[in-house]
Specification:
The structure is a single chain. The protein has one domain. Strand 6 and strand 7 form a beta hairpin. The chain is mostly beta strands. Strands 1, 2, 3, 4, 5, 6, 7, 8, 9 and 10 form a ten-stranded mixed β-sheet that branches. The longest helix has 8 residues. Helices cover 5% and strands 48% of the residues. It is built from one helix and ten strands; from the N terminus they run H-E-E-E-E-E-E-E-E-E-E. The chain is globular, with a radius of gyration of 15 Å.
Length: 153
Amino acid sequence: MFEESVESFLAQWRPYAASVQLFAHTEGSPLLECSAAGVIFGVFERTGPYSARPGAAQLILHPVTERVEKTELRERCLKVTGLSRLHVRGLVLLRRARMVVVDAGVPLVTGSFAELPDDVAAGDWLRFDTLPPVHGFVVPQSARGPSGTDSEI
């Protein structure tokens, strides 16, 4: 299990929220289109159907994968390979059990269904393909200060 609740996930992973551009979405649809790191892809909005507004936003991007591999190629890559499906290569910022935060040009709070290799740690480079959908948790405006940065709450 990667999360206990939406609220606890937001509280735990807020420091790794990504600055994204959200686009208008179909009424009642949980799918959003966002632009991050120069790529447009779909995310499944987890924080409610009216939390996201078109424009600049802070979003915790939470893909899941079946496995990760270490790579010697030290180049960030975020590529769309299907509907809400990504190919990722990036730098590990944090590892916690089966969760790894990867900087692929934008932070991705990634859950792995398989155990992560024991030697994966911050500073390593990984590559993986995500399973659809990429989950998106909108950081509420009330949790951000007037400049758009996180405030102490």
